[in-house]
Amino acid sequence: MRALASLATIAAVLSLASPAHAARSGALDYGDARHLLNRTGFGATQAEIDHYVGMSRDEAAKALLGSARTAALTTPPPAMVATGALHYPRRGAGASEDELKMFRQQQVREGLELRGWWIGEMLSTPSPLTERMTLFWHNHFVSSQQKVKLTELMYRQNVTLRANALGNFGAMLHAIARDPAMIVYLDSAQNRKGAPNENFARELMELFTLGEGNYSERDVKEAARAFTGWSLDRERGEFVFRRGLHDYGSKTLLGRTGNFDGDDVIDILLAQPSTAEFVTRKLWRELVSPDPDPAEVTRIAARFRDSGYDIKTALFALLTSDAFYARENRGTLIKSPIDLVVGTLRQFDMHPGETIPFAVAAAGMGQNLFAPPNVKGWPGQEVWINTSTLLARKQFLDRLMRADGGPAGMPRTATAEPMTAALPESVPSQAVGKDLKQARRLRLMCAVDRGVRSVQFDSAAWFAQWKAPRDAEGRKADAVRLLFAVAPQTPLPPQGIESVALVRELVLDAAYQLK
Amino acid sequence: MDRRRFLKLAAAAPIAGLAPGLATNLAFAAAPAGADYRRLLILIELKGGNDGLNTLVPVADPAYYALRPKLAIARDSVIQLSDAAGLHPALEPLLPLWRARELAVLQGVGYPEPNLSHFRSIEIWDTASASSQYLQDGWLTRTFALAPTPADFAADGVIIGSPELGPLSGGGTRAIALANAEQFLRQARLATAEGQTRNKALQHILKVEADVVQAAAHLKADHPFKTVFPQGAFGTAIGTACQVVANRPGVAVVRVTQTGYDTHSGQAPTQARLLGELAGGVVALRSALDELGRWDETLVFTYAEFGRRPKENLSGGTDHGTASVHFALGGRIAGGLYGEQASLGRLSGDGNTGYAIDFRSVYATALERWWNVASTGPLGGRFAPLPMLRT
Q1: Would an 8 Å CB–CB cutoff place A385 in contact with chain B?
Q2: Alpha carbons B90 and A390: distance in angstroms, whole number
Q3: 20 to 30 A from B11, CA-CA: which of A383, B271, B286, B350?
Q4: Searching chain A, which residue's CA lies closest to the CA of residue B192?
Q5: For residue B313, which of B103, B131, B71 has the smallest C-alpha distance?
């Protein structure tokens, strides 16, 4: 371990000193292809990498963007797509404590199912870029189940984000302004003529489009007036425009005056160059490096805006840029918990029978899907890592790599009972006692642990990908390729470590937290 | 290079050659010459937002009984502290501390333009920001960046009972998040403190690993306390906190979180249980710190994102409110009531109370009067300390 850490870091230092290696028009080598796939997806497998080796940058970006899906491959939990009115507990005096508790329990259960479903989609999709971008927009157009409560609404927002993830940013923004989960999350339904609620209008400018410093408090107030009456049909969970609550007066926004409604406001915001630059900077930090290059951002943002906010245009420009492939930008991003969990499972070809434990594991590392900490989303990068989350990451990896399946062909065990079985169907009428609550928590933690341990690392099959000769030289070559496959940069091979033990050492090295 | 070391080096350099922003930072860094981090600060977070009105009951205010037909606590069952106020009966174990004048009760702790979201409001408290200001670093993180703790401390602070670093969040601090000390020491073998790099992301990870290793090397978790810690999550957390502070040199701050105060329905039994656990934990804390001879060098205070709405709701609970009652305890506390009772006759449009003590004044007290560090830098402005310490 000690040797590995310093070797990995030596490699990191060396990569800073070395000049950009690949010619602009050159074909992707193994490292380039791996970098592209890990930044745009989750934990690329050997086969996926091989497919992209030899392509030009343009060809590779086209292939990635051209094959992106707009809908999930897997079937969502049944409750998410059930038809009919949404179920709420009765309001006010009519609601009994039991009823409210039942409702809360149901939302917790369905919320877990929804999280497990998304993890499953990330694991099995042939289009990881779609899921990465859906997650990116989830962290841009933030809504949280903590406030929205109804799992169905969170699911529907996820569908909307996925459908638009690689489509048109303007169209997505118009859709999000009408999105029921967003309407609840940012209090749009409380925004009425004469009693405006500025929550959505403020975040629309500060976090979704312009960025702080590019608008005034007056702009916020005027925009809030334009969105009055944008509300929600509670029973159907659908957008509804309430004419009686809308302010039809004249508004002045960013130097323009007119009888604007919400759609007009969005179009005015999209016309501002700072919107394209704000979103491009955020895409850069997601895909390229923590420090956006101002000149490149201006160039790419201009293309983005000129294309009418075609997201693929922006991504193509980013993914074919010199900065994207530059040595000094490799291994500079810290894996999110989802990167770590989903990426590790994909990369080592592990197939969990139950996915909810992995959503819970990611939550324990600080990324609870469908529940970002606040409207600003997960800050990411260095904030991901503190003593607690780092140890949680290492413990997760340690457990995963201890669960070796042994010889190839050994059956993978599924979890004995589904995770949601750890949650009660109903709650007894008396207040839930401390012991019951603690027992439930304990059952849940055991289920998570069992789920993580149920995954088998079929090391024999994984190592067989290299089909290497068994002599000493061959083993050394193996080790070099292995290191290449696991670490974000290319450390030198340590000596005297083999097979699973080597992989364990590598994933526990600090460098494995990077991408 | 980390911020702490940068400030140390920069302090030796002539200020004239530096950018204006840096010079300002240096002024703050230079000010707290005599920072005394041997004095321990323990923060207890009442997560979810404890109901202040039923914690310190305004027994002489008819408006209280009118607003709470079901939840009001009768005058004859409270622990009377003054003619106008009495403690929730479950807090009875605190009475000896009150009589010894080691308990200060802070009334109406809050801030202007209160936010009613759990997440946003606790962020305001944790970062000591204004209501409309978004800051990344916790108030203690900013404090330790400007006035570092001694290098031989196991860590700046330890976080118990919550995954969130709260006031210690953001870059730079040596914050150790503990579920329990033994588990931490077991897991710590997975960390290594090797390596140097210019990659900023890797640098950060290696720093956190080094923090784990340093903390693990300086911490033991086997002090034989005579004190019996109460059963349950909070009592266990207090036990862990005491194991941490039994180590010398240890840490400057410990934050313990007690959860469950978000009592929208069926409040009465839940709050009684929680306050009982709180009181039992605090009494055990005092006893254990006495054993260590550290009670006189310990300042404890509670905090939460907000209090609760004065008018009870129709589910036998209370909704999110604003200012609330908090406690400060310790061997050097000047016991008594501080702040003032909420004016229940003058509620805001959404039915909430104003505040009497800005929470940043409580922080300023800890920074200036306890640790002897300047508070204007970390708190982003001047907040008057409270006269609640005997020095």
Answers
A1: yes
A2: 39
A3: A383
A4: A2
A5: B71
Which chain A residues have a beta carbon less than 8 Å from that of B198? 12-13, 16
The three-state secondary structure class of A423 is coil
R_g over Cα of chain A = 25
Per-residue pLDDT of chain A (515 residues; tens, 9 = 90+): 333 433 343 333 333 333 344 444 589 998 899 999 999 999 998 889 999 999 999 999 999 999 999 999 999 999 998 877 887 776 655 677 788 888 888 999 999 999 999 999 999 999 999 999 999 999 999 999 988 999 999 999 999 999 999 999 999 999 999 999 999 999 898 899 988 888 899 999 999 999 988 998 899 989 999 999 999 998 889 999 999 999 999 999 999 999 999 999 999 999 999 999 999 999 999 999 999 999 999 999 999 999 999 999 999 999 999 999 998 899 899 999 999 999 999 988 888 888 999 999 999 898 999 999 888 899 999 889 988 789 889 888 988 887 554 433 333 333 344 555 544 443 333 334 445 555 666 666 667 777 777 777 777 777 666 554 445 555 555 555 555 555 554 444 444 445 667 777 778 888 889 99
Contact A434 B232 (CB under 8 A): yes
B188 touches chain A (CB under 8 A): yes
**Sheet arrangement for strand B86-87:** B56-57, B86-87, B79-80
Q: Which residue range(s) make up the domain with B343?
A: 3-9+38-379
Q: In degrees rounded to 5, what are phi and psi of residue B179?
A: -85, -60
- Contact by Cβ (8 Å): B53, B310: yes
**B365 occurs within a structural domain:** yes
pLDDT tens per residue across span B137-171? 999 999 999 999 998 898 999 988 876 789 998 77
Size of interface A-B (CB pairs under 8 A): 128
Measure the CA–CA gap between A197 and A30, rounded to whole angstroms. 53
Chain B contacts of A5, Cβ < 8 Å?
A: 192, 194-195, 206
SS3 label, residue A147? helix
d(CA A497, CA A483): 12
Question: In this structure, what DSSP letter does residue A208 have?
Answer: I
B109 contacts B355 by C-beta, under 8 angstroms: yes
Quickly count helices (H) and strands (E) in chain B.
12, 12
Q: Taking CB atoms and an 8 Å limit, are B190 and A391 in contact across chains?
A: yes
- The answer for B 301-320 residues in CB contact with A (under 8 A) is 314-316
Chain A neighbors of B184, CB-CB under 8 A? 391
B133 vs A: CB within 8 A: no
CA–CA distance, A372 with A171 (Å, rounded to integer): 23
What phi and psi, each to the nearest 5 degrees, are found at residue B288? -70, -40
Residue B15 in domain: no
In a domain, B27, yes or no: no
Question: Does A381 touch chain B if contact means CB atoms closer than 8 Å?
Answer: yes
Partner residue facing A16 (CB), from B163, B184, B198: B198
Q: Is the ipTM of this complex over 0.90?
A: no
Check CB contact of A494 with chain B, cutoff 8 Å: no
Q: What is the DSSP letter of B246?
A: T
Q: Is residue B385 part of a domain?
A: no
The CATH number covering residue B106 comes to 3.40.720
Q: For B330, list phi and psi in degrees, rounded to 5.
A: 155, 170
* Count of residues in chain B: 391
Q: Are A362 and B163 in contact (CB under 8 A)?
A: no
Domains identified in chain B, total number: 1
CA–CA dist B271, B49 (Å, integer): 11
Closest CA to B56 of B102, B116, B108, B122: B108
- pTM (two decimals): 0.72
Q: Which residue of B has its CA nearest to A202?
A: B132
Q: Residue length, chain A? A: 515
For residue B372, name the pLDDT band (cuts at 50, 70, 90): very high
